[in-house]
Amino acid sequence: MTESVVHVQVHDMSESEDSDATIDPDITDLGKDSPDLFNDNSDQDHMSPIKSRHSLDNHKVENTSSVSQTNKKCDIIKKLKHDGKLMSKSKIHSLSDEESHDDKTRILPSKPQTFGKRTCSEEVDEANKKRLNLQKCSNSPVRNDGDFSNSVGSNKPLLSKEETLCIDNKNKSENAKRRKMPLCKYGSKCYRKNPSHLKDFSHSGDEPSTSDQSSQSPPRKRTRMDVPSTGSPSPGIETFTEAQPFSFFLTKVAGIDDKYNSSYTMNLKDILSPGMGNLVASCQFNYMFEIEWLVKQYPTEFRKKPLLIVHGFQGANKTRLEADAMSYGHIRFCQARLEMTYGTHHTKMMFLLYDNGMRVVIHTANLIQRDWFQKTQGIWVSPVFPKLSKSGAKEGDSKTHFKHDLLDYLSAYRAYQMKDWTKHIQDHDMSSARVHIISSVPGRHTGERKTCFGHLKLRKVLQENGPKLDTVKSWPVIGQFSSIGSLGPTKDSWCRDWLQSLSAAKGSANKMVPGTKLILIFPSKDNVRQSLEGYPAGQSIPYSINNAKKQAYIHSHFV
User: Fold this and answer.
1) What is the C-alpha to C-alpha distance for residues 99 and 138, in angstroms, rounded to an integer?
2) DSSP 8-state secondary structure symbol assigned to residue 28
C-alpha cells in the first residue's frame, strides 16, 4: 500500500628542542669588561655571541675543536675585535632593552649551549633569526644603527601595535560568534561546502578549507538528535489560515536562514500543537517509525492520548517496532496486509481527533528524526472538519468525493483496528475539502475498481477535472522522485501507460496526448554531497547499480 499524495605566532624558544642558541637580554659586551662567554668556569650559561647577520658573513670561522680549547676561541674574538665587527656594550644593551620592553619577557637558555659541529656564522645566523621572531612577537622596530632590518633580508613591513590589536580583536570576535552558533556534529571533519551551513554552524577545532571538503569521504552514519527550533515559534492557527485556500506547507529545515522557515512552513510539533486543536486521539500511517522520537513531538499534555500506528512491517521488524512501544501504554498497532511480493506500506497520513472536530494531514515524511530535520518535505493540512448531527458515509461529503474516497481506502486494510477511525470519519462533515485523494493499494483490481487507486485513478481525475487538452498539449510531464526501482527492460514496459495517465486532460479520453515529453529529476552525486546532510543523505534516495545497468534508457529523460 503506497503513499497517498496531494599571524602573529609566539615562539617560545626556551622550550624548543631543536634550538641550539637562545637569547638572554642581559648579556653585555664581549670585550675586556665582559666575562669570557667561552670560559667553562663562567657562572653564566654558555651561549653563542649575538651579532648582526652581516657581521659574520665574511668570517665563517669553524670551531672544530673542544669548547675547552680557550686559545682558539680567544683568537676568534680578537680577530672579530680587530676587524671592528663586534658590537659594543651599549649597542647590545640597546637591543636588549628594546626587545624586552614590549613583551616583558626574558627568554633564557634552557641548557648550556655549544657550537657542536656548526660554524660560528651558522650559529649567529640562527640567533638573529630567533631574535627576529622575538621582535615580531613584541612588534618593536628593532634596528642596529639603522641596518638591522636590511641585514635580515626581509622586505615585509613589521606589524604595528594597532594592527596587531585589530587582528586580535577580529579573531576574538569571530571566535565568540562561533561559540554562539550550534556545533556541527562533524566538527573539524565536516566536508560540506554549502555557504549557509558554514554560516550557521560552528566547526570548533581545526577547520578544513572549503577546497579540501570537496574530496572528503562521508563520515559515519549520522546519529539521532532532537529537531532544533527553527524559524518562528509554533505557527498555530494564524499560519494555517495564512496558507488558505491551498493549505500546503513545506517542512522547516534546520541550518538555513530563518526567513525560509517563516512562511508556509511547519514541523511535526507545529502540526500537533495545542494551537491546532485540543487533541483527543490520533492515528499515524507511515512506512518508518521512531517511537520515542515520535512521542516527544506531541505536547506534554497530549503524550498519553490514544495513538494508533498503522504500518506494514512483518517478522522481526514488526517485533522490534512493538518492543519500542512497550513502555507507552497508550499506543496500539495496525498491520497492513501486504499479500503481493512487492507490496509496501508507504502511506504517510495522520488523523487528528479534537474535542470539536477532526483533521486529516497527508505528507511525504517518514516518522523518523532525520526526515524532519534537514529534508524538505511536503504537507497538506485539512481544515477542522466539524461533527455531523447525523452520522453516515454519504453525509457531509465534498464535491471531490473526499470522504467517500477516504473511507474506500480504509476499507482496503480489512483490519478491525480501523473500525473506530472509520466511525470517526463517518461522524464528521468533510464537505469543505477541496482536494482529491489519489491512493494506492497493492493487488489486482478489475472492472470499476481499476480506476479507484493508483495512476489510473489519477487519469480519471484529470480527465474529469483537469485543464483542456488544447491548453496542455505542449506541456511536458515533469517527474521528481526519491527512489528508482525495477522498471523493466524497455521504455514501453512502464512508461507508456504511466505517461498517458500523467498527461491526461479534459477531452483526451484514453488516448496518449501526442508529443508529450517526459522530464525526470533525480539527485546527482554533487546534489547529495553539497546538501545540508552531505553524503549521508544518499541513504534516502536508493537506486541500485544493477537496476541502473538494466534500464539505461531512463537516463535519456534526466535533466
Assistant:
1) 7
2) -
